[in-house]
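Quick one:
INPUT:
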């Protein structure tokens, strides 16, 4: 994963009013911490941060953070967003080492179409949107792509079916279904009614057996 250099300015003051002034000036307040580094309150250019977070790596981008001439390898561990505009309001940067394994959330993206499902009136349901992975910072995948072109009604693709790069582990049950091909709603409803009727018939027969004998 490519690293993006981001210049940060230390800030002496803190508080809601200070943060509001920084955001009004086009800067995002934040803090840098980790690996014995004394927590450093700072701010970064809002446009530069937004640009970095919209690369292929997304929120898992690896930063080379320049704080008053001192460079730190870091990740954006937590992003606080405005409740309405969803713009970044505060960012926590965590210092990392190139050789350490860290955790991150990686998105699961569906690729292609599933004609065996959709052309027969079925529905493709995407159940798992992200997975938690563990890897060295530079090895964290930007995303996982799941080809659904061979998906059929009644079949599924699991965590175990993902193409996971060497050095990356997924913290999830391999049998967890990621995407499922559902039958048409009418067919599913009919199957459900048939199963219910069979269940009721069996129950009635079981209930009527002893009474007939009497």
């Amino acid at each position: 994963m490519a690293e993006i250099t981001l210049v940060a300015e230390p800030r002496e003051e803190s508080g809601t009013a200070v943060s509001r002034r920084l955001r009004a000036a086009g800067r995002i307040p934040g803090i840098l911490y980790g690996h014995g580094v004394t927590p450093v309150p700072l701010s970064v250019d809002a446009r530069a941060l937004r640009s970095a977070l919209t690369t292929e790596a997304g929120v898992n981008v690896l930063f080379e953070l320049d704080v008053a001439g001192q460079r730190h390898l870091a990740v954006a561990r937590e992003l606080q967003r405005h409740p309405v505009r969803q713009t970044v309001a505060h960012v926590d940067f965590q210092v990392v080492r190139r050789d350490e394994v860290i955790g991150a959330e990686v998105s699961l993206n569906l690729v292609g179409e599933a004609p065996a499902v959709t052309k027969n009136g079925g529905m493709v349901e995407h159940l798992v949107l992200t997975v938690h992975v563990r890897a060295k910072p530079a090895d964290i995948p930007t995303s996982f792509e799941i080809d659904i072109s061979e998906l059929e009604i009644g079949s599924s693709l699991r965590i175990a079916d993902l193409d996971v790069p060497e050095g990356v582990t997924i913290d999830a049950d391999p049998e967890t279904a990621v995407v499922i091909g559902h039958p048409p709603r009418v067919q599913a409803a009919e199957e459900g009614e048939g199963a219910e009727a069979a269940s009721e018939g069996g129950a009635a027969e079981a209930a009527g057996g002893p009474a007939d004998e009497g």
